[in-house]
Amino acid sequence: MNLASQSGEAGADQLLFANFNQDVTSLAVGSKSGYKFFSLSSVDKLEQIYECTDTEDVCIVERLFSSSLVAIVSLKAPRKLKVCHFKKGTEICNYSYSNTILAVKLNRQRLIVCLEESLYIHNIRDMKVLHTIRETPPNPAGLCALSINNDNCYLAYPGSATIGEVQVFDTINLRAANMIPAHDSPLAALAFDASGTKLATASEKGTVIRVFSIPEGQKLFEFRRGVKRCVSICSLAFSMDGMFLSASSNTETVHIFKLET
């Protein structure tokens, strides 16, 4: 999650980014002074396993599972993506884009770079650009989700800036898979489950969370988190077994829903 516009802290420890890796075994944190990785092997203690201060103002840092591959974006060069081997301290490659990088997503097959009006799909093995989705609806928050499953390797992103339309793209066969009319209001959050067969969505209205089958787009579940106005859903996340779905919001609450069939 990009925290650059939300953090009120100052100084070298100001948080700019925080996110889990794909299997939730580590936490990546970007700050004014660099980035850190923490192990999540214990729920009692957050153990720091790596720290880098070579790159300042790290606004995006994404680790590939528990490997040494990390994708980094700095506020000092917001259009430039660096892919590094952090244990060796070496840069594998770097790419520059036409606009600010808003989000980066990785799995074992693909690396996705999200700009405000385009998405770049890279082959993670050699970092070649396989496909570009151009002229997407304005997406200033860089909202997108990439399945971590090798067989169901789907990308989801907003299909409209005015309604909650979700475009689902097959990143292996490089073709559109479906369009899901998920909500009446613009999208605020997206998340795949670990199998890549379910997609959770929330709109800017924030009261209803829906779960759809992928790639079919059939509505499987609908949850209501309350009727309070002006609720912003910050994130959605499935448990690794796909049985539970959590939603965090600006009300400083976390809701957990059980997906009962």
From TrEMBL:
Task performed by this protein: Component of the autophagy machinery that controls the major intracellular degradation process by which cytoplasmic materials are packaged into autophagosomes and delivered to lysosomes for degradation. Involved in an early step of the formation of preautophagosomal structures. Binds and is activated by phosphatidylinositol 3-phosphate (PtdIns3P) forming on membranes of the endoplasmic reticulum upon activation of the upstream ULK1 and PI3 kinases. Mediates ER-isolation membranes contacts by interacting with the ULK1:RB1CC1 complex and PtdIns3P.
Residues passing through the membrane, by range: none
Keyword Magnesium: no
SMART domains: WD40
InterPro entries per the UniProt record, alphabetical: PROPPIN, WD40/YVTN_repeat-like_dom_sf, WD40_repeat_dom_sf, WD40_rpt
Keywords for this protein: Autophagy, Lipid-binding, Membrane, Repeat, WD repeat
Principal localisation: membrane
GO cellular component, one term: phagophore assembly site membrane
Keyword Membrane in annotation: yes
Record Gene3D superfamilies: YVTN repeat-like/Quinoprotein amine dehydrogenase
GO biological process: protein localization to phagophore assembly site; response to stress
Classification of source organism: Eukaryota, Metazoa, Chordata, Craniata, Vertebrata
Family that this chain belongs to: Belongs to the WD repeat PROPPIN family.
Protein name: WD repeat domain phosphoinositide-interacting protein 2
Pfam families per the UniProt record, alphabetical: PROPPIN
Subcellular location: Preautophagosomal structure membrane
Recorded GO MF terms: phosphatidylinositol-3-phosphate binding
Membrane topology: Peripheral membrane protein
Assembly mode: Interacts with TECPR1. Interacts with ATG16L1. Interacts with ATG5. Interacts with WIPI1. Interacts with WDR45. May interact with NUDC. Interacts with ULK1 and RB1CC1.
